[in-house]
Write a structure and sequence with these properties.
9 helices
Amino acid sequence: MTYKKPDKNGSQGKSQKRDKDTAHPRGSIWDEGKICQAVVVDESRDQSYHEEKDLDDDLMFIAADEAEKSLESCAESVTDAVVGDSAEIHPDLPGYNSSSGRVWIFPTNFPVRQYQLNISEAALFQNTLVSLPTGLGKTFIAAVVMYNFYRWYPSGKIVFMAPTKPLVAQQIEACYKVMGIPQHHMAELTGSTPAPQRRELWRSKRVFFLTPQVMMNDLSRNTCQGTQVKCVVIDEAHKALGNHAYCQVVRELWNQTKQFRVLALSATPGGDMKAVQQIISNLLISHIELRSEESPDIQAHSHHRSLEKIVIPLGESLSEYQTRYLQYFSALVY
């Protein structure tokens, strides 16, 4: 694993502060808290396949064990603001464990890509919109951010939202494989989950995968305590327009607490500047990480495509319909 140290100021105040008079409170959360540093523990790249697999498994177990140890001081009911005896208490950061917060962890059990490392670090300290071409590791970055907030806030809740049930189920496995968050701390919630069971899951679990509609329902019914939510990952963030459920969730969380991190993911953030600005405002984004297939730091990892344009004639039957269609509308216009 890679352990990243913070700067000497150690402040989460890397998030931009919001002017009190601005319409959208972006980037104002956690301006005073002390956070993290950086250390790197690399693995040999020239081991055999089985040796590498065993080492990867060991690293996952080590990461999981570290997380378990950070939870030892927590009551079984998972209460607010639990810190170890040696951890400094931060009144402005309820639940923050300064001992865990001295480092942030980046995995090296996968080939290290510099752009993923850079984006992950930025996303830890600022509400970030990440736009990467498909297949370049948006979920990987999300897993890194989620795991670090999982460590920093031993009693906090981490939420991953995706627009459909299949996407939700897909992300659970991906996040476990990347960072090794203990599966017994994770839960998938659907609209069909009975209300009593959902309340129990919100009480006993820490990392949740669900659709925004389910999240909004649980927030509005107080099944989920918004004050416990410390990190929200939003997949397919380009859908956060108008009164979409994504927008409702972020607004409701903001009404309940100002201390939560937003990480928005999208391969195509918007068709025009107006749409992108709406997403930024709706999701309280203060920082954008944008890469295209031509970006220097991802060219070595992007998939080069060969495009060939083929024009297919309409054919006699379709051409006849096209002619009738044009004649009909020409009569209406003129």
